[in-house]
Amino acid sequence: MAAARPRQGEDDRPRAWLSWSSGKDSAYALHEVRRSGTYEVVRLLTTVSDAFDRVSMHGVREALLDAQAASAGLPLEKVRIPYPCPNATYERAMTEVLARAAADGVRHVVFGDLFLEEIRAYREQRLAPLGFRGVFPLWGRPTGELAREMIAAGLRARLCCVDPKRIPARFAGRNFDLELLAELPPEVDPCGERGEFHTCVTDGPMFRAPVRARVGETVERDGFVFTDLVPD
After folding, report:
1. Interior/surface letters 45-69, b for 16+ CB within 10 angstroms, e for the rest
2. What are the DSSP calls for 182-199, one per residue?
3. Which CATH class is domain 15-231?
4. What is the pLDDT of residues 136-156, one digit of tens each?
5. Full-model pTM
6. CA distances from 38 to 31, 32, 110, 150, 211 (A)
């Protein structure tokens, strides 16, 4: 019989929050951190656009976000931001929420970033003055291999947002699977790390049970194509 997982506060590993986008990279980062056992992830952290009650950029409904957190077995910290959101407003909101994390003994934030140096540098520059360190468990891994590993591990996701300037709009709503990878234009990163597409995870080794959702309407807004995923 497996040993009981220590309750929060009884684990001597460094405690961390995880930046949760609702997509595959943050979800797989959670899986990898748990598998390595290096950090104890105690909370998910997500920005939500107040104007839409949806995850920023991904456009995922708040109800699905809540279902993901429940299936991951973790509490969720929502940072509500306006739309549009000036960078100064975003940074002020994140500073406030990380102050609450620090008061709870947390000094690490896990990210699902893959290879964009400027994004990692920005995160580290913002975290350091607050006494935090960034953790990047997927960093530098070949994204084609990583995408196939995710799928083989049982991760299930759909493309909820695509940039039609970089990838055909018809990919919106598609499953993130081997068939999709085979059809992606060669200049498109297999994990969409340059913003070609964003995903919503519905199943995988980081979840206790699948998050049920059906494909809804596809719309174009602000130069992006969004496919709505509706709680089922």
Report:
1. bbbbbeeeebbbbbbbbbebbebbb
2. HHS-TTS-TT-TTSSEEE
3. alpha beta
4. 999 999 999 999 999 999 999
5. 0.94
6. 12, 10, 11, 20, 27
